[in-house]
Hints:
The protein has helices spanning 4-7, 57-62, 90-103, 116-127, 150-155, 160-168, 170-178, 188-195, 205-213, 221-232, 254-263, 279-282, 284-296, and strands at residues 13-18, 26-34, 42-46, 68-72, 109-114, 132-138, 241-246, 268-272. With 304 residues, the protein is α/β, with parallel strands linked by helices. The chain has one domain: Alpha/Beta hydrolase fold, catalytic domain (Rossmann fold), CATH 3.40.50.1820. An eight-stranded mixed β-sheet has the order 1-2-4-3-5-6-7-8, sandwiched between helices. Helix 6 runs antiparallel to helix 9 (205-213). The longest helix is centred in the N-terminal third of the chain and has 14 residues, at 90-103. The termini are far apart.
Amino acid sequence: MGDWKDLYPFESHFVELPKSETSVDSVRMHYVDQGDRSAEQTVLCVHGNPTWSFTFRRVLTDLADRARVVAPDHIGCGLSDKPQDYAYCLERHVGNLSRLIETLNLQNVTLLAHDWGGAIGVGAALKHPTRIGKLVLLNTGIFPPPFIPWRIRLCRLPGIGAHAIRRWNLFARAATTMALHRLPALPSAVKAGLLAPYDSWASRIGIASFVRDIPTRKSQPTWQVLESIEQGTSMLAHHPVTLVWGMKDWCFRPECLERMQRLFPQARVRRLDDVGHYVMEEAADEVLEEVRRMLDLPAIARGA
Length: 304
């Protein structure tokens, strides 16, 4: 059976980030940093909701001999601080990741991102196109949502939705079964690891905030940020891109993959016909294959 900590034996690191543009207070962003820090290449793993850097444990162990591997937790998630009075939104998460990239001086980066991590990671790539040269994107959307699945709509119901997420941990618990297709169930230690940082009302604020931040109208700031990221993808036209897609995902359905292909016509596509939303949990071997392939490609020249 085992303990989830046996699957995640990594040293914790933290970077201090400003709590707001006007505040002197700070929050701590947790990250794992494996491999040789002087390695020629870096893999930057960016998680979505309701996961955390734990979902990239195989990348952290299996690729540390090939590259420096960095996996942060967004503020409000994983082992990062979870302030109750924080402006949780896509723009802040992009800014936080950008600051981490600058603080660690990450270069020659292959971005590996899933779910909300796709928008956050690509948003950061647009700020640092000479640092982030290659992209591997898993079941994500970097555009305003063309639809919101009914299961997520239920979690957005005023009052009831936030209560279900924060009191009963409904969103994260349900994902451990609903985000699967290939596997009948997650091993108990894996399920425990995915849920471990989200063990109280206060600790689930990041999960609830991500759900609340899904935009439904053009007037909403996060809609505008997503539009800007979508429009900015032309800056990445010469960057190698691989799209690895669980085709049984009810959230980021195949039409999302088609839209991603239109944004990245240069992309290599790997469709996983029997995989759901939790691609790293069901198809880590296939993802690792694609990341290794990306690491074998020549680096993008600075200024390209």
